[in-house]
Structure formats: C-alpha cells, structure tokens
C-alpha cells in the first residue's frame, strides 16, 4: 500500500489501476464534451474532459479519495488534515465525509467566507491561522499533534498523484468510445499534480501522446523550472488563474522533468478571453485555471492544428458574482 | 412521411423512432448530470438532461433536424424558413447548414446584434422586419413567396414535435443506464414543443411517468389554459425566462390537454435563484428558462420528495455580460 513517503520513482500503472478501483464508487466518470465551433476556431479536434462536474467541483476528489480510502482503519479513525483554501480542501473534506472520518483544514482567517462555507458544507473542520507561512505551519503542526490526523499534501503526495492519474485513463477510454485517438493532452499546471498523474498514465498506456502543460505567464515558475532543469519557486505570483499559483515539488518535478513535452504560457487577457469563449460555446461553468490550456492552444496553433487534443477542465468552483470579464 | 399539415392525433411512437434514426448523425446524445447537493436540497433524485450541450445550444436542433432531413430533395433545394429570434432560428440554420440548403430567418431589426450574429454564424440568411406582428407576417409572406422555402414553425409543426420527442427517449435510456427509474419528468413550457414531444414519448414508452410543465408566473398562459380547458394566449408577457413567452397552439394543446399531469409556476425571483443555484452546483451555463423546473421543484417539495425526477435543461444561449443576478 502506498503512503505519503512512497518513493515516487517506484509508482507504476498498476498503482493507478488500484487507485481507480478504490475511488470509482466515490467519483464520477465525468463526460467529455466537444464543440464544432471551438474545433473550427482552433483547427484541432478538442475533447474536453469535464472534471468541473465532479461533486466537489474538481479533479482533486480523485487524489483525495485515493488517499482517504487507502488508509488502514486505525489511521483513518484519526482523520486527515491539510492546509489549503482551495479545491483540495473541499475535495479532502468530501472524501473524508464519504468515509465518515474527520478532515481538519488549516485556512487563513482572511480566506473568503464562501470558501470556508464550502469546506464546512462538506464536513471539513476549519482551524484558522494568520495569513503567513509561519503561522500556517505552526497552526498546522499543532492541529496534527492534537489530532494525530494524516497529512495529505495537495499534490506532492504519491497517493494523490495516483488518484489524479485516473483522469487521463478515463479520457483515453472515452476518446476511443468517440472513435478518436488522442495525439496530445493539455492540462493546466500549478503544483503539477494533474500533470504528474497524466504523465504516469500516458507514459505507460499511450506513450505516443504528447503532454503539454499550460501555465499563466504571471505565474510561470513551472515554465522556468522546465527550461532551467531544476525547480524554481516564486514567492507570491498574482494571476486570475488562482489555482495555479503554487510551485512544483520534488514528486511532481519527477514527472514534469521526465515526461512533459513542453510548457506553454498565456497572458491574463488571453486566459480571460479563452474562459469566456469556453463558457459561451461549451456552455460550462469553469474556473479561470481551466482556460489556460485553450488560451495556449489559440496562441500556438502550429502545435495543435490537425491534431486530436484532450483538454482537462480541472474545476468549476467560481464566484458567480465576480466573473473576470465583468470586473 | 410527415409534413407540416399531418393530423397531430395520428402521430405514434414509430414517428419518434423514425425521427431519432433520421437526426442521430446530426445531434448529440447529451449527458445526464446530477448533484448530491441538489438532491439533498430538494429531497428528490434529480437527473438533468443537458440539452444546452447541443452544438447550437438547445434541444430545438432535434425538431429542426427532423424537419430539414425529412424533406424530399426538390423541396429541400428551395430551403426552409421561419420567424424567430431565438433558439429555433439558430437550430434551423444549423440543420439547414448540415444539409447544405438555405435557411431564411425573418427577425425584427431591433433584435440584439448578438442573436443576429449567431444565426449568421450558422449560415442563416436574415431578412429584417419591423418589430410588429403585421410587419413580421407581411415580410415572412414575401420571403416565402420569393424563395418557395418550406415554413418550419418553432413548435406547432408535427415534424418538430417528433424531433423534440427524441429527448425523453434518450433520458429514459440514460436513467436506466444509471440504475434509475423515472417517476416524473419536468420541462419548461412556452409554446409547448418540448412538453408535447415528452408526452408523445412517455405516454407510449413509460405511461406511469408523471409529466409536469413548469412556467413563469408572469407568462402563465399555459397554466391558465390547462385550468380553463382551452387555449388562452397572452399578448406580450414579460419574464426573465424569455424563451417561454409564446402561447400554446392547437398541436401542442393536443398533447398538453391530454397527457400533462400538472402545470406549476414560479416567480421571477424564484427563477433567478434556481438559475444561480444550478450554475453553482451543476456547473453548467444555461438559460433562465431552464431554471423554471428547479424553481417549481423547490416550491412544491411535496410533489417531488423521494421521487426520481428527470429535468430537461433546454438551452444554454445566454448573454454572459448580462447575467440576471448581476443586473
């Protein structure tokens, strides 16, 4: 059984398969949508894997469920814990709720009330910290000591990466059901959990499929890491694609450095434009982060023209009162 | 072969099946989505049939494709025509484009440019009229005389009703695939095309399934017709659910009066609230009209609690710069 300290290089496609069997009762096989209009616009055949339709609104339920349902009963009883104010906190709360165990979430007291409410709706127990790294670390250490809860990192955890890897396994199957063969997959990159899972699956099951990571220009630490050959972490990047601000870590760097074909970037305006185009023509509610791949496809037509391209729509938790094109 | 003058009482489930075979290459078998959150909120098990994911953004492509692809070659060559500034005009343009024949659309010159652009994007040829019934009728008569195009009414045409009927046939199949058995279906009612198709299919294939029509309080002519036992047509109702302003006609009244279980209504505020809830928790872009069913479900919990309910999401063509909760 995997745990948080499993050596990343030992993960195999069998770990992905075991994860898929473990989480299948708790996740959705989300639909793949397409649009003649977007195909004409890009000159490619785009297959959008809509992880925004997961119950908790993001692919992160896959990794969270794999971590939670892989725990032995004694460990599980003490619960799980994480520090995140985003989709991982929601997803871990959702997964823990499905297993009936506690989920402790350390969040800055300044996080939006809507995000706190969403975590609580899924049963997560919030401990507030000050909005600084030192306060977060100290608070988290205290929560962990008091509860004995198992830490589940949002993306650097091998169990999480194996869970995210199930997404592209489904995408391969669904493309085949649609009579298509993927030439490439594009996914957004923040900490690299989704991209790492994509690498784990495709390198084994479809090694000919190119893997592109899409990143905001204003948070391009993965792009610069990829070019430099080592991890570069920014301090506090600012981008509308707020799910993508976090840096790579050693376990995701393992996959990014070995299996990613290229990393492309897009400007803030290009991201917002691609987001609005997708809402209008695919008619889905998705986060700005999910628009970075289409922005990169529109910006680099020579990479994608004439090819069948899987695009991962990573999440759909947005503030409907503050859409970026209305601000 | 059906035509615009086919006696409505002669339609059978075989006409629906023939329509489905005819249009299958041109439409999508749209996914059925669900949400634990919405199920908990309503106490029902809701299956949302997402016709907003049709290429032209609405179920109306089903009826339009059935009409267009059922024409003999000589008639088809002269094209089709309609007067509509909404989803039927888009859908008929889309269908005609797939067959490579002209589609003439008479629209008020005051219609929003975005709607005119969308019709043109699908190849529709617009003739503008003044925004009055007399101008529309005179202009339409002239276009038809000049072109010889076949008139396809947005909902009173038997070919259109048979096309719309394919939607609930798919919903029945998809519910079964999900291990569910429908107790009821709720769809919005305007002119009654979708509801009539639903009646045609369910009365034959699943007569035990209750059929509810959902209507805005401020455009409740179908509700009042249903109670009175004859068609009552309002002059110019005003509602945020702008797809639902049109009155019943004799062919849709045939089905509504015979097969509908009940018609329920919701206020403007209830519609907008249900729309926002669906965008947030189902994470789809849909029109205000599609929110009327959920608004009625929330308002009449005793009708739906504990039941498995199909909800037709009819379309997703909205102005993203003018969402009703931001106005």
UniProtKB/TrEMBL annotation, chains A, B:
InterPro entries: BHydaspDhtse, TrpB-like_PALP, TrpB-like_PALP_sf
Cofactor dependence: pyridoxal 5'-phosphate
Tryptophan synthase beta chain-like PALP domain sequence ranges: 23-315
UniProt key word Lyase: yes
One Gene Ontology term from the biological process aspect of the record: D-serine biosynthetic process
Keyword field contains Lyase: yes
CDD domains documented for this protein: Thr-dehyd
Keyword set, alphabetical order: Lyase, Pyridoxal phosphate
Domain of life, source organism: Bacteria
Gene Ontology molecular functions: ATP binding; L-serine ammonia-lyase activity; magnesium ion binding; pyridoxal phosphate binding; serine racemase activity; threonine racemase activity
PANTHER family associated with the record: SERINE / THREONINE RACEMASE FAMILY MEMBER, SERINE RACEMASE
Protein name in the entry: Serine/threonine dehydratase
Organism of provenance: Roseivivax isoporae LMG 25204
Organismal lineage: Bacteria, Pseudomonadati, Pseudomonadota, Alphaproteobacteria, Rhodobacterales
């Amino acid at each position: 059984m995997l745990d948080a300290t499993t050596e990343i290089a030992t993960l195999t496609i069998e770990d992905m398969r075991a994860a898929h069997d473990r989480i299948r009762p708790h996740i959705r096989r989300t639909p793949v949508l397409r649009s003649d209009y977007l195909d004409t616009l890009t000159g490619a055949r785009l297959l959008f894997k809509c992880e925004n339709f997961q119950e908790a609104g993001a692919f992160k339920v896959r990794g969270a469920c794999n971590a939670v349902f892989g725990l032995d009963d004694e460990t599980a009883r003490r619960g799980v814990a994480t520090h995140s104010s985003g989709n991982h906190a929601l997803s871990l709360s959702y997964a823990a709720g499905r297993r009936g165990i506690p989920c402790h979430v350390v969040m800055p007291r300044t996080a939006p009330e809507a995000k706190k409410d969403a975590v609580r709706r899924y049963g997560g127990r919030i401990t507030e910290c000050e909005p600084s790294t030192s306060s977060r670390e100290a608070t988290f250490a205290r929560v962990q000591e008091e509860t004995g809860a198992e830490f589940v990192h949002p993306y650097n955890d091998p169990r999480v990466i194996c869970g995210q890897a199930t997404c592209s396994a489904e995408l391969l199957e669904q493309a085949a059901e649609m009579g298509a063969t993927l030439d490439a997959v594009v996914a957004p990159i923040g900490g690299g959990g989704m991209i790492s899972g994509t690498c784990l699956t495709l390198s084994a099951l479809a090694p000919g499929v190119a893997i592109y990571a899409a990143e905001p220009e204003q948070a391009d630490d993965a792009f610069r890491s990829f070019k430099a050959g080592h991890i570069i972490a920014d301090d506090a990047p600012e981008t509308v694609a707020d799910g993508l601000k976090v840096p790579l870590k050693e376990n995701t760097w393992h996959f990014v450095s070995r299996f990613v074909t290229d990393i492309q970037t897009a400007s803030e305006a290009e991201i917002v434009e691609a987001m609005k185009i997708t809402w209008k023509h695919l008619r889905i509610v998705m986060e700005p982060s999910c628009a970075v791949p289409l922005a990169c496809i529109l910006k680099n037509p020579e990479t994608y023209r004439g090819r069948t391209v899987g695009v991962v729509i990573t999440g759909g938790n947005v503030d409907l009162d503050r859409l970026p094109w209305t601000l």
